[in-house]
């Protein structure tokens, strides 16, 4: 049980608690941090350090463990989770947080280790961190990484803290330097991206509000209603958010509804709608006139969608709990969005632990689900209507290969180009919408427009 001994660094104390919980309960970092914020009252400065430590250790875990294995006799696996995570937390500060003096990083980490794990663990943490700190003081790296020339996969995986299977796939597609750039992008903190609800506000109004609050904000590079915010902003207490003028959404995701060629009066079905970022963008694109059914299999996630729709004032959204793999509205829709479940390898920057919760073998099940959604949507689409299939994945099995396979089996469909619907830098040679994080400097995305050919006139042929 954690000690109740008063300590000088509550941020480190609770960060170590969080890291222990993440490892021992296989918990998601975001959920653990949210629970801790409800449980303990910290100053804004300590809140910032808590988040930095938990997210930083989670992201850089492979790199940290590689270094620590050179200093811990018998390997990290023999240590208890408190000690192992204390070493990671201390080393993260030494390697990545230049603003913290090395002596303070070592001393404060040892103190919280003593409070939570006892004197023996504190002695080990102190000895290891002091040895590493001494090397850094001498201008020497704490440990050599695998050779880039001899083993580029191992080098990038250790240097940038990624699973080797993922690095191997990226090198095969983008080359070593492209894979390196992609790894760097996903390890860099991203600004908060907001989409302005243009039925209630203008981008200029939101930018002016943020500037008046002393926050750094700028317009998105491509989407006309995106605002990027640097620094801390508590959305839940910010009046423009409460008044439904904005929603958190990355620029690449916000451009997907543009592929749908929306207008008032359409019948639209969003098959994987929760938590509602794209659903609300669709309602906005329809001027809040028409029919929009937002379906999702997960009841809990639909609650957030309802909250967003109510907060933002959209009246045409009808929320339905349904498994999109099973048709429930035969030939009803003019437009269908399939924002398909996927590996999410284009948005790893948004969640610190996402890379560790994925396996290459997951592709098999995900590809099957995606194909089932496409088959179901094909039966619910009216002739002349369009399906927009989108993912936040970079993996070809979930993107272009999925679409090619569907088109081979469905001659009644054709692929339309995204040209003219989104900015041209995001349209590839086949007409797909494609955003590459290391090229376009935003979250990765893929989109395809599939048109169902009109039925021939009666008696034709």
From TrEMBL:
The keyword Transferase applies. Gene3D superfamilies: NusB-like, Sun protein, domain 3, Vaccinia Virus protein VP39. The keyword rRNA processing applies. Its EC number is 2.1.1.176. Keywords: Cytoplasm, Methyltransferase, RNA-binding, rRNA processing, S-adenosyl-L-methionine, Transferase. CDD domains: AdoMet_MTases (cd02440). It is an enzyme of class 2 (transferase). One of its GO terms (cellular component) is cytoplasm. Specifically methylates the cytosine at position 967 (m5C967) of 16S rRNA. This is 16S rRNA (cytosine(967)-C(5))-methyltransferase. It comes from Thermoflexus hugenholtzii JAD2.
């Amino acid at each position: 049980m954690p000690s109740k001994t008063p300590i000088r660094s509550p941020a480190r104390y609770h960060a170590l608690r969080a890291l222990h919980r993440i490892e021992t309960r296989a918990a998601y970092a975001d959920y653990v941090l949210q629970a801790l914020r409800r449980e303990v009252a910290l100053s804004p400065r300590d809140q910032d350090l808590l988040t930095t430590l938990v997210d930083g250790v989670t992201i850089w875990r492979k790199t940290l463990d590689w270094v620590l294995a050179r200093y811990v006799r018998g390997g990290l696996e023999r240590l208890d989770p408190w000690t192992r995570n204390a070493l990671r937390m201390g080393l993260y500060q030494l390697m990545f947080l230049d603003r913290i003096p090395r002596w303070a990083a070592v001393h404060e980490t040892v103190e919280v280790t003593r409070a939570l794990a006892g004197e023996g663990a504190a002695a080990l943490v102190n000895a290891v961190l002091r040895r590493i700190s001494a090397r850094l003081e001498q201008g020497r790296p704490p440990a050599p990484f695998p050779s880039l020339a001899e083993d580029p996969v191992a080098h990038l995986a250790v240097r940038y803290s990624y699973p080797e299977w993922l690095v191997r796939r990226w090198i095969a597609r983008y080359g070593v330097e492209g894979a390196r750039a992609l790894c760097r992008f996903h390890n860099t903190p991203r600004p908060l991206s907001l989409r302005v609800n243009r039925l209630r506000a203008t981008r200029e109004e939101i930018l002016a509000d943020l500037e008046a609050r002393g926050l750094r904000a700028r317009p998105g590079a491509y989407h006309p209603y995106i605002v990027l915010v640097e620094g801390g902003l508590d959305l839940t207490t910010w009046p423009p958010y409460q008044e439904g003028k904005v929603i958190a959404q990355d620029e690449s995701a916000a451009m997907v509804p543009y592929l749908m060629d929306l207008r008032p009066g359409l019948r639209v079905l969003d098959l994987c709608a929760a938590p509602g970022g794209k659903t609300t963008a669709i309602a906005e694109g329809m001027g809040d006139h028409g029919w929009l059914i937002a379906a999702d299999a997960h009841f809990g996630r639909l609650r957030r969608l309802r909250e967003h729709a109510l907060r933002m004032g959209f009246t045409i959204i009808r929320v339905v709990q349904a498994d999109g793999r099973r048709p429930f509205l035969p030939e009803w829709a003019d437009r269908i969005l399939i924002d398909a479940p996927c590996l999410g390898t284009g948005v790893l920057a948004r969640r610190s632990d996402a890379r560790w919760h994925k396996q290459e073998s997951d592709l098999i099940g995900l590809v099957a689900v995606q194909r089932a959604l496409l088959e179901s949507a094909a039966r619910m689409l009216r002739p002349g209507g369009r399906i927009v299939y989108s993912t936040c994945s970079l993996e070809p099995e979930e993107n272009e290969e999925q679409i090619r396979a569907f088109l081979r089996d469905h001659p009644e469909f054709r692929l339309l180009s995204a040209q003219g619907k989104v900015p041209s830098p995001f349209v590839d040679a086949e007409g797909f919408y494609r955003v590459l994080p290391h090229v376009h400097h935003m979250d990765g995305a893929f989109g395809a427009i599939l048109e169902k050919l009109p039925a021939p006139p009666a008696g034709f042929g």
